[in-house]
């Protein structure tokens, strides 16, 4: 995992960081917790410009969140709820989840958008309810940008620090990277199972106006 990220960055430079962070915030194949420390490590070694690394990671993440926000804003809550109730079970999402997220966004507003930047999973998903409730664009993008910049800088700093401690920690860095990705996958699988189980029990996704069967 970490070697793959390093290879992408070696081949494509800061553009690779941009693409990886963009992908992480559209559909998280590789968490930013793995991407940006590797980028910070490379910057500490003098292989990349620190400012360019920071900007590439930050703008990639912002663009990924912008895609979700604008799509949700254009599609609207009712259609997203119907979509979640029909195919969302395969991704661990139901219409109820959409409604709950929208209610959370209405309650906490800017703070929800900002604080979710520091959490895997919610950092992507929070953009959907923000679009659904048609949160002010300026507020959304400012909160997203500040939160993303803080998180990116923190992860970069962690990678920078790791470079100075490399001889002491080299032997467990790869297992740690695998553990991080594995933990994210396990949480996703558990959430997916719980959602599908709830969908079967509650009949989520079945239109209310259908006549009873049997």
What can be said about this structure in brief?
With 214 residues, the protein is an all-alpha fold. The chain has one domain. It contains eleven helices and no strands.
Question: What can you tell me about this protein's structure?
Answer:
With 214 residues, the protein is mostly helical. It has helices at residues 2-12, 14-26, 32-44, 50-75, 77-86, 95-108, 110-115, 122-125, 127-132, 137-164, 166-202. It has one domain (2-202). Helix 2 runs parallel beside helix 4. The radius of gyration is 19 Å and the shape is globular. The N and C termini lie far apart (51 Å). Mean pLDDT is 78; it is low at 204-214.
List the helices and strands and how they pair.
Blueprint: H1 2-12, H2 14-26, H3 32-44, H4 50-75, H5 77-86, H6 95-108, H7 110-115, H8 122-125, H9 127-132, H10 137-164, H11 166-202
Helix pairs in contact: 1-2, 1-3, 2-3, 2-4, 3-4, 3-10, 4-10, 5-6
Radius of gyration, CA atoms, in whole angstroms: 19 Å
- Report helical residue fraction: over 70%
Please tell me what the overall shape is: globular
Overall pLDDT score: 78
Quickly count the domains.
Answer: 1
Quickly list its features.
214 residues; mainly alpha; 11 helices; disordered C terminus
